[in-house]
Amino acid sequence: MRPLSFRNRRRISLAVTALLVAAVWLVAWIQDGRLAHASVFTGATVLGSVVLLALLGVRRRLPVLRLGSVSTWTQIHIYTGLFAAGVYVIHVPTLIAGGVFECGLSIVFLLVSISGLYGVYASRTIPRRLTAVGEQYRFDRVNWHRGQIAQLAEDLLEELKEQTGVHVLGRFYHSFLQPFFHSRPNLAYVLAPTSVRRRRLLNGLTELDRYLEADSRSTAGRLAALVRRRDDLDYQFALQLRLRMWLVVHCCFSVILIIGAALHAITALRFLA
Fold first, then answer.
1. At CA 215, angle to CA 212 and CA 219, rounded to 5?
2. What are the φ and ψ backbone dihedral angles of 193, each rounded to 5 degrees?
């Protein structure tokens, strides 16, 4: 028997999730018809799903436990999240409830849902973008690599003999390359890394060719290689930082959501008692 393709597995998983949400809606509709408290059922389902999602998130980060592959648990986490979002829509009269506490809880739930969807997108696209860049760098070694590249650039300039082109290359280095090699990328680059500064520096080095002699022209080419290497390093840093920041934000809002949902459930049950 041929294994199901990824696309077919996704379709089946979405169909099962939709059927489960429809089943919850049907039970809630029946309870409304019997004048029962359908909101208790849907609210308990949302709370249980959120707690389960937190447990699934912990399981995904403990690969040493032999309870199935991490990818399988990731898929379970994704579709459980979609199920929780669908039941939430059934549970609330409006997406953002009235009242200070309920409004805040609704916003936190939506933030968790949106950040979760972004996490699905990021986890599928960012690793491919990282591997598309030549050399791979560990996140905790980025600063060390920056220092090494900056030192290599300094050494290249010091190795040049006293020639006419050296002064031209030296001025360009101190005006543009040294700030680039010795500083961290700014916030705008981290949020949306582009190749603008890389192209600007490489174009500047190319325009210097007419003023350089053979040795200094060779040094300019090696400096251009260091510019590419440093830009690749910053690009990987920005993407890895994005993944880490997403995880921190998603986990923090998830903890707030669990606490808020538990308090909301306790308050609602007290009013019903």
1. 85
2. -65, 130
User: Helices in 160-213 by DSSP H: which ranges?
Assistant: 164-172, 178-181, 187-191, 196-207
Instruction: Going residue by residue through the chain, which has 273 residues, state the pLDDT in tens, using 9 for 90 and above.
Output: 456 666 788 888 899 999 999 999 999 898 877 766 788 888 899 999 988 888 877 766 665 556 666 677 788 889 999 999 999 999 988 888 778 888 999 999 999 999 999 988 988 888 888 888 877 888 889 999 999 999 999 988 887 765 556 788 888 998 999 999 999 998 899 888 999 999 999 999 999 888 877 778 888 899 999 999 999 999 999 999 998 999 899 989 999 999 999 998 888 888 775
Residues 6+ apart with CB under 8 A from 134: 232
Q: Whose CA is closest to 241, among 112, 146, 137? A: 137
Q: How many CB atoms lie within 10 A of CB 263?
A: 12
Full-model pTM: 0.80
Q: How far apart are the first and last CA of the chain?
A: 55
Residue 74 CA to residue 59 CA, distance in Å, equals 9
